[in-house]
Amino acid sequence: MLVEQIVEIRPNSFAFYLWKDPPYEVFGKLYLFNVTNGEKFLNGEEKLSFNEVGPYTYREVLSNTNVNFEKNGTLSFIPRRKIAFVPELSVGDPATDTLLLLNVPFLGIMSSINDYSMLIKMAMAQITFAVDSQPLVTLSVDQYMFGYEDVLVSLANNVLPVWIDFSHFGIVDRLMALDNGSTTMNMPVNTELTKLRNGTLTSIEKLNGLSGLVQWGYDPESDSNSKCNTISNYFAGVVFPPNFSKNASFVLYRHGFCRPLPISFNHSDSKYGFDAYTYRIDHDFLATKEENPNNHCFCLKQKCLPKGVGDLSPCYYNIPVALSQPHFLNADPITREQINGMHPDPAKHNFQIMINPQSGIPLEANLRLQINLHVTETKFNYRTKPFNELILPLFWVDLSVSGPPAIIQIGLYTLYVVLPNVQMAVLYILTFLSAVFVVGSVFTFVGLYVYQYRRYMEINYNEIEAFALK
User: One Pfam family for this entry, by name (predicted)?
Assistant: First the structure.
């Protein structure tokens, strides 16, 4: 009970400050896919080939802002993240390293108009010819990740600012923009109030005041919402409920990844002197709706991507961006067979997080995901035709935590080693003192009894002597 009170997030508590500005060292290791045979592929001579280049490592700092403790026992907040390049953990300088990369705006926009009329497709094709858009571009890593000028993007931003609300395009820049949007999360933190309404401590209950994901069809006025788009047992990954069992399952949610990431218990261990439960991403989290009916709402317009690949287009301007595990691990083999250079390895590419079950505090993590571009059937454009119906890897990221910071380890050691021993020692001391008190009381009582008895006998003896003398 005492430990639960200590780890509960309350205003101005130690746990609150650890949660608000987590002291973890989180590194985002980025691996880009460089095209190695662009000319031969465009000429129809070979399958498109990639080689992996990385890591380019960035330190990520999270701060939970606009924090309010609500009357219903929840806490509302907006997560904000900043990143900074870490040269000593990187393979090169992203400002000067150049690669041959996929032109995401060009291929993405041409794919996104797949369901439009023939006239619009023809007009868009002519525009791309006029501005000389090419499907492959040579850019520095910095430009590709954080923004470069693209004629199509600038044109779309000027003509359709409601659709394309940015003038420069960078893949990580767009992910961070979505991550750092004004997304207010509500999280229960009061133990007693959470129990009263059958909630789960530290879970995300609402996003922007809603109990579901609007981008996946959630409607607060509808009765047809499903498990697929309704928030249930979601967690931001900073902290989990204390004292959970191996049967517990969780769903990680980060706005930049657009969709929930379910994780389940894999194995238990001991790490840093504490109990550690390793959780891995569910093997069927990107399965087809036939294999996993809970994925049905992720199939837009009744169209599902192959097993192991998930649509993210509702979060990214309807550009056909797709999610997978690195190198298409656990995906339909045909996805990686259509291209060269994919080498999935569970040891390198699996998604896992290690959590201390008593406190709910993460100990280590390797959250590995890949961002891809799904090029649909494009028409009236010979430059995009070779890419039709391919799922193309852009980059993958390993969000890693190599261990808890010293302050967390000291806190856990104090809570779960020192404090129980102190409590046990105090219990022993109190038990000993109680025993001493009881024994002392018995001896005192016996002593008083003997004393009183002797006094009584002496008085009686003196009275007898006095009577005899008379």
Answer: CD36
Largest CA distance in the chain: 146
The Cα 319–Cα 374 span in angstroms is 9
Name 136's Cβ contacts closer than 8 Å, sequence gap at least 6. Answer: 35, 38, 42, 100, 101, 102, 103
Confidence category of residue 453, pLDDT binned at 50, 70, 90: low
Q: Look up the pTM and report it.
A: 0.87
Residue whose pair of structure tokens reads 């990214």 in the numeric block: 316
Give the model confidence (pLDDT) of 282-313 as tens digits: 999 999 988 998 888 898 877 889 999 999 99
175 vs 182: CA distance, rounded Å = 14
- The set of residues, in sequence order, having a beta carbon less than 8 Å from that of 148 and lying 6+ positions away, is 139, 168, 169, 170
